[in-house]
Structure formats: structure tokens, C-alpha cells
Amino acid sequence: MHKYIGRRILLLLPVLIGVSFIVFTMMYITPGDPAAIILGEQAADREIQMLREQMGLNDPFIVQYGRFARGVFTQLDFGRSWTTRAFVFDEVFNRFPTTLTLAATGVLVAVLIGIPVGIISATKQYSLFDNIAMVFALLGVSIPNFFFGLMAIIIFSVWLGWFPSSGYSSPMHMILPAITIGTGSAAMVTRMTRSSMLEVIRQDYIRTARAKGQKESVVINRHALKNALIPVVTVVGLSFGYLLGGAVLTERVFSINGIGNLMVASIQERNYPMVQGGVLFIAFTFSVVNLFVDILYAFIDPRIRAQYK
Amino acid sequence: MSNTTDGTKAKESTRNRPTVKHPSSQTEIESLGHEQPYEGQERNPDAPADIHEIKPRKRKSQWLEVWQRLIKNKAAIVGGILLLILIFSAIFADFIAPYAYDFQNPQFTRQAPSSDFWFGTDHLGRDVFSRVVYGSRISIQVGFIAVGIAMISGGILGSISGYYSGRIDNVIMRLMDVLLAIPGILLAISIAAALGPGLVNIMIAVGISSIPRYARIVRASVLSLRDQEFVEAAKAVGANDFRIITKYIIPNAMAPIIVQSTLGVAEAILSAAGLSFIGLGIQPPIPEWGAMLSQARTYLRDSPHMSIFPGLAIMFTIFALNLLGDGLRDALDPRLKG
């Protein structure tokens, strides 16, 4: 088990370096001279040249990347904002709890809706409940979360006045964004739980459990669910990363001051280090989350654990 | 020619006789014989024309079977019809839309839906219905071209990776792992931010960000087909690698690619709308649904119709593609049906 965890952590490192390389390359090919953007339109040529030299922009690509990677991996230095000269990492990290909370509440919504509905759908396949649930699941996958958010604001804050429409300062503020960001994943988790349950229910050991006279609730909850949850864990883990990405749009809809909104604002003022810093930070988080999911996987599934004994 | 027709006639009469005599026992054997031309040849060495008659029938029947399974699926039919309506409105937008998409009518700004303006008007007095209709053009273009970019690049990378294995496989797949480590929409955002706004850049950004998925699917298929006997046979005949991959492997790996691209078009449209929504995508006055939602957000309280209709348009497009994609998956591989 330790060997497995150690191996997975070692495999994470090249991926992180790769991500930093891609993100840096993207910033490098972005048109426009960073020095000119920082100094503004009135800057003299000589000043721009001096800043270019100072920032090391005249160095070869690989030297620049080396400097960037060293900063990122040894000092958590993601570069500096072109507009305020603040450290990108600090700005992004300050907003990280907000984005993380948003994504986590979204996952909570997805799990709380998706798993029970998926189980009931599978145990009562082709029933009215199943059919309605599947139509809603498909609609849930199809609705863009920014549109869902706008509709939620119209209905629940403008018409009914139950929830505030923007901000993120109290639990009441968190409900609409959580539902908005979680709906798509809830639909995915429902579909996955259902199909995984259906597959497990047809297995021989379930028939055995029933044959020995086990109560149906025990058969479903103990024998079937435990085995059916393995692929569901993957979907939940993946959707956490997906939600960190989706947070960009949801934060925009509800004016939540997270990483996503920071990135959108930075895009508009062409402050690319901030955009890339946000991407880098979320990609790192996503990779770490995936690592946890993989390890969790080994804990749930003895077959995987056995491979690494 | 006359000889062969005589031959087939003679053969058919000999063939048909037993089926007529013992319909219950012989029909099965006869139909099997139809699918395997070599058996027929053994029985009638004088009639080689028979082989040419049978071969295309077998190829067709595989896709025919898929088609028959697909049209039995009501959900897939609904999806297909919705999609056809969308394509129809994209092609004939000039005839369907009552106004030009950029026609501004300052007297009628932010009007609620009425008989003159079915979906109301926006903050500049433009007809929302017309803009939604024209918007289908943009979304279809973005969806299909982005998927095209992803499918072709991902397909090439995946084929090379799966066919040659070894070091090149390792390099390509590790690169794909790295790309997959960045959530899709964020990758699209950072590419789009680097390239700048615009329709073409959006297609490229969304396309590149979904390359890894196609590469993985194609690689898996190629890997499973690479050592099959028909590939070996092609190698023995002297076909080069390019020919083997394009003529023998890819056609047999089409099923998962078709399913993934149908669902992929939906995702591409969704991502593109998302990019436009945060201001990275298509620039005004081009009527892109996501961009329309972005503008409508300001007027959410007083003019909700401005956001409802473009949003519904996105939703139904994605819904249709998902229905069709699910149906295609079930039809192409009935074993996967859950």
C-alpha cells in the first residue's frame, strides 16, 4: 500500500512540471510585449527595453522557462501581476478558499442528489421514477451552468426573494451557487450510480445474497452498493476537478470573488500572469485531488490493493 | 456475360430447391452461406460472379443493423429531429429570421415577447428571435469544426501511439496526461486568452482542449486491433503502415469515435458558449448564444427574456446531441447498454 501511494506521488511530479511548461508556453506565445503592457502606451522605447532586460524577456525561451519553473517549484513564485505588481500566488491563494468551498458544496450537492436517486432508479428500473429521473439527469447534463445560475437568480431571488443573488458572505449566499455548480455533476453521478448498480445487481453474488434469504435493504445497501460505488468515486473525483473549472463561470454569474472571477477580470485587462497563475493553481489542485481519488480507490477496492502488496 | 448469368441462374435454382423443400431446417444454413462467400464458391466453382454480389451486401448490413437499432430508440429519434430542426434553421436563417441579426430598432429596446418580436428585443432593440436563429449557425460551426480539429489531431496522435507503442507512445500519452491534468474549460480559457478573442480562435481553443480524449480513445482501439489477423494479412500483402492504419484499423475503430464526437460536439458548443459568456469568445454584434447571455446578465431583473431564450437554445442543442449520442452508443454497441 505504501509502495502504491509512493509511486503515485512520484508520478505526480512530472505531470506538474508538464503543466507548468504548457502554461508557461501559452503565456510566452501570447501576442503583445509584456514590458509594453506593464508600462502602458506612453512608455518610451528605451524604458521598455530596460524593463525587458530587467525581466529577462530577452533570454532564450528555455532559459525563461527554467527561471519560471524554479520560481514555481522552489518558492511558489507564480510571477507578478502586470497591473499591480503583486505576487500572483498570493492573489490566487487568497481567493482559493472561496473557490474551494464553492466546488466542495457543489460536490456535496452532486453526491446528496446523485447517489440516492441513482440507487432508486436502478432498483426500480423502467419505473415512472426511473424514467423521470433519467430525463432530468439528461437535462441536467445539458444545461449550461451559467444559464442555470441566471434562471435560479430570476426565480429564487428576483421573483420569490428567497436567496440573495450575488456575493458569498453567508450560508444563505452559498445555496444557489452550490446548486448551480452541482447540478451537472449531480446528473452525471446519478447516471453513473444507476448504470453501475444495474451491472452489480445482475452479478451472481447478489443472487446468492438473496437466495440465502437476506433482507432486500441489506442486499442493496451492503452487498450491491459497496461494489457499485467504485466507479462512482471516480466520477465524483473527476467532477471535483471539473467543478473547480466550472467555478469560473458560476463565480461570474453570482459575482463571487474567487479565482474564477479574478481570472475573468484579469483577462479583460490583459493581465495574463494572473490568468495563467489561476490555471496553474487549479491544475495543481486538480492533480492532487486526482491523486487522492486514486488512493481512495485502493482503499475501497481490495482487488487494487492486492496488486501492490 | 451470358455464360455467367446462365451460371448464376443454374446455381440459384439448385440453391433454392432445398430451402423450399425443408424451409425450417435449411433457411438458417442458407443465410449463413450468404454471409460467407467462400462457402458458396466451394459449392459452385463455375459461378465466381456470386462473390461480387454478396460482398457489398455484408458490409451494408452491419451499418443497416446499427441504423435499425437506432431508429427503434425513441429518445435518439427525438434528439435527431431536434438536431435536424437546428441545422435547418442554421441553413435557412435568412428566411426564418424576421430581422437581420444586427438590425437595431432604438424605439423598441428591451421589449417583452409579443407577436412582433416573438422572443422580445434586447437592450439595443435587436430582435432576440432573429439573433437566436442566426446564433445556431455560429454554434453549429464552432461545435463541428472544434470537434473536427480535436478528432483529426487526436486521431493521428492516438493512431501513432497505439500502432507503434514503445517510446513514441510513452511521449505522446504523457503529454496527453499533462493536458488532461488541466480541467477542460480552463485549458480552453488559457488558450483562448493567449490567442485573443474571435470565432476561429474559439474553435482552436476548444478543439485543442479536447484532443487528449480522442487520442486516448483512438489509441485504445488501435491497440486492440493492431494484432488482429486481418491486420497481419494486410502486412503480409505488403501494405505500408499508413495504409494499414487508414484502411484497416480506423474503419474498424469507428464506433467509439462516432459516439465520442457526437457527445463532443455538445461539449464543444457548451465550452464555446462558456468562453463567450466570460468575454473571451465571439465579439459583438455576432449573435453567439453565450455572448447574448453575457449581455443579458446586466438586465436580468427587468428583462429576463433576454437570457431565457438564448439559454434555452443552448440547452436544447446540447440535449438533442446527448440524446443522439446516447442512442448511437446503444446502437453501435448493444453490450454497453445499461
Structural class of chain A: mainly alpha
Number of strands of chain A: 0
Uncertain parts of chain A: none
Identify the quaternary structure here.
Answer: heterodimer
Termini separation of chain A comes to: 6 Å
**Are there runs of chain B of 5+ residues with pLDDT below 50, and where?**
1-43
User: What about the largest sheet of chain A?
Assistant: none
- Number of DSSP helical runs of chain B: 16
Question: Strand tally of chain B, please?
Answer: 0
Structure described in brief:
The complex is a heterodimer of chains A (309) and B (338). Chain A has helices at residues 2-29, 34-39, 45-55, 61-75, 88-123, 128-142, 145-159, 171-201, 204-211, 216-254, 259-268, 272-300, 302-307.
Note the main attributes of this structure.
heterodimer, A: 309 residues, mainly alpha, 13 helices, 0% strand, B: 338 residues, MetI-like fold, elongated, disordered N terminus
What can you see in these coordinates?
The complex is a heterodimer of chains A (309) and B (338). The relative contact order of chain A is 0.14. The longest helix of chain A is centred in the last third of the chain and has 39 residues, at 216-254. The mean pLDDT of chain A is 85. Chain A is mainly α and 309 residues long. Chain A is flat and about 85 Å long. Chain A has helices spanning 2-29, 34-39, 45-55, 61-75, 88-123, 128-142, 145-159, 171-201, 204-211, 216-254, 259-268, 272-300, 302-307. In chain A, helix 5 (88-123) crosses helix 12 and helix 8 runs antiparallel to helix 10. Chain B has helices at 2-21, 23-35, 37-43, 49-72, 74-91, 93-96, 128-164, 166-180, 184-195, 199-209, 211-225, 229-237, 241-249, 254-277, 289-296, 305-332. The two termini of chain B are 52 Å apart. Chain B is built from 16 helices and no strands. The relative contact order of chain B is 0.12. Chain B has 338 residues and is mainly α. Chain B has one domain (62-336): Orthogonal Bundle (MetI-like fold), CATH 1.10.3720. In chain B, helix 14 (254-277) packs parallel to helix 15 (289-296). The interface between A and B is large, with 53 and 45 residues.
